[in-house]
Amino acid sequence: MSELVAKDVQDKDEEIARLQEKIMSLTNQLESAVQASRTTPKRRQMNPDAQIIHQVDKTGTGRRHERPVLRPTRERMGRNASICTQQVMAALPAVENDYANHPLAIRILDMFQSPSSHLDYLNSDQFAKDLFKLCQKVRHVLEREPRVVYLQSPAYIFGDIHGNLEDLHFFSDNIWRLGMGLTAGNFLFLGDYVDRGMSCLEVTAYLLAMKLQLPDKVYLLRGNHETRDVNGWEEHYGERSFIYQCRSRFGDDIGYRIWEACNQVFDRLPLCGVVDQDIFCVHGGIPRPVARDTTRIQDILNVPKVAGINPPYEHED
Predict the structure, then answer these.
(1) How does DSSP assign 218-237, residue by residue?
(2) DSSP assignment letter at 275
(3) Choosing from 118, 162, 225, 283, which is the catalytic residue?
(4) What span, in angstroms and rounded, lies between the C-alpha atoms of 229 and 310?
(5) Residue 34 C-alpha from the chain's centroid
(6) Which is higher by pLDDT, 20 or 37?
(7) Residues whose CB is less than 8 angstroms from the CB of residue 99 and which lie 6 or more positions away in sequence, other chains included
(8) Does 63 score more than 70 pLDDT?
């Protein structure tokens, strides 16, 4: 009897040992799987052009050719966020801008996209008329701006363009590929839009058209070349001067009138910008103080709305 009991106990001990070995093996496999998942995490596809796949409910009614039902998973919040954004945008007050889809601005933007295919337009009376109308409309927009414009980040800040249409195309292709209106942030240009380059009229037309379309997003500061003494210095710049390009394109009479109309816009450009109440942006450096009891910002704000700077001030070299 005692031998049977001892045999039974021995069998149970062996079975327990086998179970313990199996448990140990499963534990090791589980730890290996966890470790592998930590070292090589599965990345979610973030390509904006990739197809978004939702969870598919495969439960059917037994019908043939039954189409699966797509149900979004709760872990994906992109669509919910888009719906919320759309609701917030719809609740915002509408910004009235009669020039967003104005034919004048559309013609100039089409020209900017492909100048080579718009050579007839660029040398036509229509382009001259569009420049006159554009300058007239932008003047009124600029007269409502202070001499110091205050911006919030994000903001793109650009230096001299100098009649270089290729530079603007580079910025357009790499910074505002979807257009300035669909690009987050403000755009601040620091002046010197004309002279030296061979596309002064095209650059001026495009920037003024963008200012007309997006007056609270695009800001144009004044540089030293936005003065008559500089952009009218044909003896120095020759065919690269702004006045020469105006007169050679449209003739002496109309060309001079276009040159003067653009300079009247330049007379109204703000002189500097401040980003986030912290970053001071200006074309020609920090100005000299005018009075001891005022700040430089106050001095600039006190400059008249329209300033021709022609002839130059007596104290200027």
Answers:
(1) EEE---TTSSHHHHT-HHHH
(2) E
(3) 225
(4) 7
(5) 44
(6) 20
(7) 105, 137, 212, 213
(8) no
